[in-house]
Amino acid sequence: MKTKNEPWRKRTYQKVTLETKLLVVDQIVNGQISRSNASKKYEVPRTTISYWIRIYSTLAQQNMGMSKNEEIKRLKEKIEELEFQKDFQQDIIADMELITGVDLSKKSLPKTLAKEIERKKKDRIKENGSMDVLGSVNKLSTKELTNKKSKK
């Protein structure tokens, strides 16, 4: 059964401020909210939100101060820096374990890091020979070599 035909009316919306537009675009670009949810929440048509994204998303990126490529480059540099710091810290821990003879990494670090440190210790020993308590390499000096030869 058909109801009374109403003439088609265009829906009216309130004017939205620039701050609200940028907020909506930022939330959608960052994945915090979908376009449909933003449309319902802010009572704005989805097509209008799509238009805002097209217009203001580049503006929002400019306000953040960098493009996506620049951000990726910065994050890659940060990863390299953190990997260097991790390797440096592992080297220090491996050296301290060789000097003191106490396995600190097995007690206080996750297994994966402890394994990496153990591998570094083995590499150090292969390179330098075993290390005594004071950290000096246990290689015979020339005096010790001559004393051993004379005793034989």
List the helices and strands and how they pair.
Layout: H1 18-29, H2 35-42, H3 46-64, H4 68-100, H5 104-108, H6 111-128, H7 142-151
- What letter string, H or E per element, gives the SSE order? HHHHHHH
Radius of gyration: 33 Å
Number of strands: 0
Euclidean distance between termini CA atoms: 118 Å
**How would you sum up the global shape?**
rod-shaped
| Residue fraction in strands | under 5%
Q: How does the major sheet shape up?
A: none
Per DSSP, the total helix count is 7
Question: Which segments are poorly predicted (pLDDT under 50) over 5 or more consecutive residues?
Answer: 132-141
**Helix share, percent:** 55-70%
What integer is the average pLDDT? Answer: 77
Structural class by secondary-structure content: mainly alpha
Note down, in words, how this protein is organized.
α1 crosses α3 and α4 packs across α6. This protein is mainly alpha-helical. The chain contains seven helices and no strands. 9% of the residues are buried.
Task: Please name the defining characteristics of this protein.
rod-shaped, 7 helices, 152 residues, single chain, mainly alpha
Task: Please summarize what this structure is.
The chain is mainly α. The protein is about 70% helix and about 0% strand. Mean pLDDT is about 75; it is low at about 130-140.
